[in-house]
Amino acid sequence: MSTQDATADERSDVTRAEYCVIACAEAWRGDGEILASPMGTVPSAGARLARLTFSPDLLLTDGEAMVIGDVPALGAAPEVVEGWLPYRRHLSMVTGGKRHVMMGASQLDRHGNQNISCIGDWKQPARQLLGVRGAPVNTINNPTSYWVPRHSTRVFVEKVDMVSGVGHDRAAAAGPSATRFHQLRRVVTDLAVLDFETPDRTLRVRSLHPGVSVAQVREATGFPLTVADDVPRTREPSAEELRLIRTVIDPSGLRDREVRT
């Protein structure tokens, strides 16, 4: 059966949002005792799922300055607080590579350059966004992944209007000080999982979510993508993972507000 068939292997009882949670959780697999910093509802659900299953040593926070010992549902307060994580120690973890952040991206190019700062000429932008925030430091010091809830040509562009997070081409141009700890791991979208495991470190499709075709992903991307002939589907969740997502991590179904069905 071709993996490019849009619907052949789709399970009717698993939503697109739940496949996205699984894909985000997989980004932290094998990280060990490291701080997970998910930004967004689906990445937050993914980090919680990873902690409850295959990455039990993952450190989570309450979203502010407390390291938590339990895994509360999205939007709920933790019952177990293990310690205070002041800003200076948070920065030490960032610069020491002890953190894996999953950020959003208003624009992302084939090399992994991310823009969350502005749209248009940065000297007089058409839209002012967040600013570069911590993106430059994140991308050159600790593992970084991206979450894009609406895969489209507005996000995946030939050239970003301003660089916030540093891509592979710019890191290489800056030299060893930028490449030493530069790790762009995954890009999870509502259509697919992408990575940079190509000879020239540009985006390729790692897996397609069930119900999505290669043609859909290409059409929603503003530059040519590397796609293997036998690209797999994003893996199915286990029955236990579905139980955790639906009854423990996100019983209110917040994930469905972030990912269209």
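(the above was protein one; protein two follows)
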Amino acid sequence: MNLARIKAIFLRQLFLFKSNPTRLAGIFLWLVIDIVQWGFISKYLGSLGKDTFSFITVILGAIILWEFATRIQQGIMMAFLEDIWTQNFLNFFASPLTILEYLGGLVLTSITTGMAGFGTIACIAGMFFGYNVLKIGLLLLPFMLILLIFAVAMGVFVSAMIFRLGPSAEWLGWPIPLIISIFAGVYYPVSTLPESIRGIARIIPPAYVFESLRRVLYPGVLGDKFMPDLLVGTVLALLYLVAASFYFVKVYQRNLITGSIARFNAESL
């Protein structure tokens, strides 16, 4: 892969933000609304629990991390969709750009905007609700790494699905983070789920992150499974990333062979 071409895709996305600042609303506006709303909800619930339980510590930390993953997934999907909507997708491949370099540029852009969004909501949570996302220390890094890898895998998979089924398949992509959050135990322990569906959490990397996060927030219950869980979460996230990338490339090759790529625009598919 040529890094200069990946950088070119990345810079193009940045120039789009510069030429139309309203695009920034898609990165920051929903994040700010979510964190403010959940901050007040957590504060209210915390007042009911008095000093026995801190909802802000448990809920707000999980929301900040999950929003980070969600924005990365949606960032890749939206950048891909915009190239389809503007019927600009084919123009890229009139150049020596390869599909993996194109994908690499979208992923790099999405990670950058995801990190910017994470920093913004972490500051808001600190200033308005007294929540310090750094209170878990260096363990924040492996948590974010697992979520980042899995979010990229989700974004690539959803883009491949749109590439295979057409732009209208975007409606299948938007609810995916919400569906995964149910089984991953983002807002509650996995043990809360009915036993019949609890096993699904074992194949979802974020489940290992949020179960571990709750152990960190409650000193004394870290347990022997903490490090093995992080390792399993990392391996699973990497497997999903490889599988999603492989699927995207296969869909691209199929569209080349069948000629579908020549018709790939918002009106024809």
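Reviewer note on protein two: The two ends are 30 Å apart (CA to CA).
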